[in-house]
Structure formats: C-alpha cells, structure tokens
Design a protein that fits this description.
Blueprint lengths: L5 E5 L4 H12 L3 E6 L3 H12 L4 E5 L5 H15 L4 E4 L14 H29 L2 E6 L2 H5 L5 H21 L4 E8 L5 H4 L3 H9 L9 H11 L11 E4 L6
Parallel strand pairs: 1-2, 1-4, 2-3, 4-5, 5-6, 6-7
Helix pairs in contact: 1-9, 3-4, 4-6
Bound molecules: NADP nicotinamide-adenine-dinucleotide phosphate.
NADP nicotinamide-adenine-dinucleotide phosphate binds next to helix 1 and helix 7.
C-alpha cells in the first residue's frame, strides 16, 4: 500500500510512534525514525531491517529548529525524498490551572505544537517541490473535549488542529494533504501511571468498552498516508472507541 514511500515518524522510540513506524514499514514505506536519542530508535530500525524493510534513525528534538532541519536533510540523504510526515512526538505536564507552572505550559507548547509547525515547515518545502505529500498530526480526544488538569496539553492539541486546517488549505495546491488522527485513551507509557480510579472512570465513558491500542492508531495513520486517502484533507479522524462523538 505504501511501497517506496518515505515516511518520517517523530516520537518513534516507543508507544504510538513506534507502532506507527512499524505499521508503515509493513505497508512498504521506508522509515526515518526520530526521537531525542538515536539509541532509543536503534532497535526499531534493526527490527525493520531484519524483516526486509528500510529504515534509519535520527536524533532530533522537534522543538529545536536546527534539529528539525537536520532531520529533514537526513531523510533526503538516506532516501532522496519525503512523502509522509507523522507529527507524533508529544509530552504531558499535567497540573491544575492555578498551580500550572509557566515552564509546564511552555514545554508542552514547544514540543506538541511548535514541534509540529517546525517539522511541517521543513518537510513541506520538499513535498511542495515533489508535488506530493501526506502530513498526519497526532492530536487528542482531550483537545476536542477539554480535560481537568490538562490546560496546556489540551490547548496544544486544539492548536494543532488549527495548524492542520491552515496547512491543509495552504498546501492543497501542491498535492500535499494535511490531516489529523485524534486518539482517545491509548495504552502507552503516557497513560501507564494514571491512578486505577481515573482509568476506571475513563473506561466507563468508552462505548466500545476497552482502551485503545497503538495498533488502532497506526491503522488510521496508514490510511491517511495512503493513495486511497488522496481526496481527504483538513480532517480530524477520531479513534477513541466512541468516547467523544
Ligand atoms: P509516549 O509513549 O510518551 O511517547 C512519546 C514519544 O515522543 C517518545 O518517542 C518520545 O521520544 C517522543 N518525544 C517527546 N518529546 C520529544 C521531542 N522534544 N523531540 C522528539 N521526540 C520527542 O507517548 P504516546 O502515548 O505514544 O503518545 C504519542 C502521541 O500521541 C503524543 O503526541 C500524544 O500526545 C498523543 N496521544 C496519546 C494518547 C494516549 O492515550 N497515549 C492519547 C491521545 C493522544 P524520546 O522521549 O525518546 O525522545
């Protein structure tokens, strides 16, 4: 489905990003796996290669412009083009509004929102010249609903949706689509430490009666990255078990 497409996946060292990278590789894409430390994506790259795929790892902090430009250059050097960008890198720094520290606000905005802006700006230059591209931003159900204790995170994800729609309009003429996948509650390191009561309350809100898996998200990303999704742009695809509709 994605034979010979080149995909940059940010935040590929674990969780959703790692699963997305593996899934796209299984669909035939060549992978540029990005996280802050190269050794954290080395095992993923080895396993893709062992299965006959192609992959390289790049160390980059997506909130730093120099790193992001290096990331895009490394992708071009390795594979000669960039067809797919998955802006997945993200963090939480939760706290109630009254107690939220400025650095917790800035840290989340810098990685979740500015990181996607910097990566998109750099990759879109290449995609625009190619007259082909698929950009997929990982937002969140709480960007749609809001959530107590996550003003910074929810604002970053809602902002990412504004960025998605603006970039979709701006890049459409170059045959570059820009979409988002909004996960619900997905079992990864990010959600592993939540207290049992919070998990149970959350589960009660999910009509499909289970938490999501990284595979649930990877399938949605692969669809939006495919040829078949060529007439979809500016869309936010909810993958949340019905938690918000
Ligand atoms: P995770 O397990 O904590 O993984 C986060 C990934 O982001 C790691 O690979 C991490 O790599 C990378 N990362 C963090 N800061 C980075 C930076 N400055 N530069 C480059 N990479 C960075 O999280 P996850 O649950 O897989 O979440 C992935 C995405 O899905 C995030 O955007 C998250 O907001 C979103 N999401 C998750 C859920 C959920 O329930 N899990 C729900 C909705 C949305 P290193 O730390 O190794 O650099």
């Amino acid at each position: 489905m994605l034979n010979d497409r080149v995909a940059i996946v940010t935040g590929a060292s674990r969780g959703i990003g790692r699963c997305v990278a593996e899934y796209l590789a299984n669909c035939g894409a060549k992978i540029v796996a990005v996280s802050r430390k190269q050794e954290d994506t080395a095992q993923l790259v080895d396993s893709i290669r062992q299965q006959g795929g192609e992959a390289v790892s790049v160390a980059a902090d997506v909130s730093r412009v120099d790193d992001v430009e290096r990331m895009v250059e490394a992708a071009q050097q390795a594979f000669g083009k960039i067809d797919i960008l998955v802006n997945n890198a993200g963090i939480t720094r939760d706290g109630l509004l009254a107690r939220m520290k400025d650095e917790d606000w800035d840290g989340v905005m810098d990685i979740n929102l500015k990181g996607a802006f910097l990566s998109t700006r750099a990759a879109a230059k290449v995609m625009s010249k190619q007259r082909y591209g698929r950009i997929i931003n990982i937002t969140s159900v709480v960007g749609q609903m809001g959530n107590i204790g996550q003003a910074n995170y929810c604002a970053s994800k809602a902002g990412l949706m504004g960025l998605t729609r603006s970039n979709a309009r701006e890049l459409a003429r170059r045959n570059v689509t820009v979409n988002a996948v909004a996960p619900g509650f997905i079992e990864t390191d990010m959600t592993a430490d939540l207290p049992e009561k919070v998990r149970q309350d959350m589960l009660n809100q999910i009509p499909l009666g289970r938490f999501g898996s990284p595979q649930d998200i990877a399938g949605a990303v692969a669809f939006l990255a495919s040829e078949q999704a060529g007439y979809i742009t500016g869309h936010e695809l909810s993958v949340n078990g019905g938690m918000y509709m």
